[in-house]
Amino acid sequence: MLVESAEQVRKTGNAHASPHGKPPGAAGPAAHGHHTRAAQPRAGGGAPPEGAREMRPARGTGKPVVRLERVVVRFAGDSGDGMQLTGDRFTTQTAEFGNDLSTLPNFPAEIRAPAGTLAGVSSFQLHFADHDIATPGDTPDVLVAMNPAALRANLGDLPRGAQIILDTDAFTKRALTKAGYAEDPLADGTLSSHTVHAVPLTTLTQGALAGSGLPRKDAERSRNMFALGLLSWMYHRPIETTERFLRAKYGRRPAVAQANVDALKAGWNYGETTEDFAVSYEVASAASAFPAGRYRTITGNLALSYGLVAAARQSGLGLFLGSYPITPASDILHELSKHKDFGVRVFQAEDEIAGAGAALGASFGGALGVTTTSGPGVALKSETIGLAVSLELPLVIVDIQRGGPSTGLPTKTEQADLLQAMYGRNGEAPVPVVAPATPGECFTAALEAARIALTYRTPVFLLSDGYLANGSEPWRIPRPGELPDLTPVFATEPNRPDGSFWPYLRDPVTLARPWAVPGTPGLEHRVGGIEKQDGTGNISYDPANHDHMVRTRQAKVDGVSVPDVAVDDPGGDARVLVLGWGSTYGPITEAVRKARAAGGSVAQAHLRHLNPFPANLGAVLASYDTVLVPEMNLGQLSRLIRARYLVDARPCTQVTGLPFTSDRLRAAIEEVLHAV
What we know:
This protein is α/β, with parallel strands linked by helices. The chain is built from 20 helices and 24 strands. It is globular and about 90 Å long. 52% of the residues are buried. The model is unreliable at 1-51 (pLDDT under 50).
């Protein structure tokens, strides 16, 4: 279940990575590939970039090979240029090679924005290294721009000395005008601080496919594979898996499959033979940086899907997903629909309300009920979630957060649903909240959300976001024996001395009520949204009973067992704590590393449980003079921390639809350190 194909799997502890692919007739070096953040050498130059480990000649070619520690590559073009596919294939090749990696897909909200416009630019960024990394990188070392709009949209992110590979055939007067260029940036000095590789990608692709029999326009669509082949040569990426992927993807259209393969190899051969690329680069495997095991690349949404299936298997329950398509959560619906063999039932409802209601009904029937959505859908599901609080039934609500309010930024990331998850229901309706920190952690977060829901008979929020959902990283596939036992205890017989059944007679430890599957003889009981009498479950309007039930439900959530928050404070003398939650983990980790490398003493802690907070959190916060809380909202966690613990929690906020850069957070950390 956890491994889709052999091409996505690698093992750590290998002495070396698999040799890269070499197209027939290509004299490519058989060395490992990787990237760096350092500036690249100028076209035709032979000097190694800053930070390069060594330069040596490649076997079978006169071109030197530069060893690098890490590289950030960004592919950019129109939505129809296949940038997400190109980035995904380059990522798979990199994972197979054994590098650590982190990705950032970025695509427009419009299904198909006008071609050649800034609104239609789609990009995919990949950071890969020979050591442990935590982010997709702040700035690209290499930008592949398929048209003027892609160049204009991304040029501001490039540092001096970065390489730009662009398709000169796309830089027509009309295309320049649509992108907002008054003059050709290739001729007016706009790109003078960068290393520019002006490559006629379209013409070269058409030439490579001249004998394919495909119409000219169809042949042009393969230029993204030409670019992928060129980048694969530059960084010694293995291409055999991409060739197999293309033949499988276009199996029913063999001419198209062959055209893409030919374009891929032509791009490789171009890099090998052209004088414009004076050197190639290699980055060693990062296998030694990770525990031994079987690894694969995984996105957050895929990991979350697998985690839900694993939770169902570990609990012995059927998994029922009641959902309605919404970006960026739809991939979970798509993925779970593939796993009927594991007892997964997927219901695509007519709207968000129906999806939540169906999931809650499945939980009433004895299944693990799950509903997936994003922020706008949470608003619509709120009454049903409140009903689940009242019924005290397990329900997992997956919220893949995106920019808001309202429709907002459907394809952009944000962390602004925390207060909605905490309080976005009428009345006192407490719900536990779990938040993964990385794409791979979405798997364990799904298991944890299911554990809490099943143990305490409560709905549980799982807060991911677009950055985690679409981003990917290497993930160690757990062994079945490592997974927790989530088997629930169902009520099977009356629980009163007189032979009656009380549906709200609680477990003294968890305060969970009995879970009685409908149809169990002797366990008939009444459920509904109107307040219940404690114990009997009869409808009650008694003021004292309502007060008791409200406080009991709150006490149940407050008593949920969660692990203590871990603190990373190597010297033990830090006075500043950086506290994060969710997807800010990567940028915070990189920023803290940079601050420490510059001599700063700073501690780091990250919350995976936001309701209830870990029991030791108050003591941890009291140990530091200042607590800095980076969030992709206007300070929601910092408000909760200040209100609960009365500490000086300082927000560091951003709502751009993009994740923090580590340099931005490093500057914020150093400002606080200076003040302290």
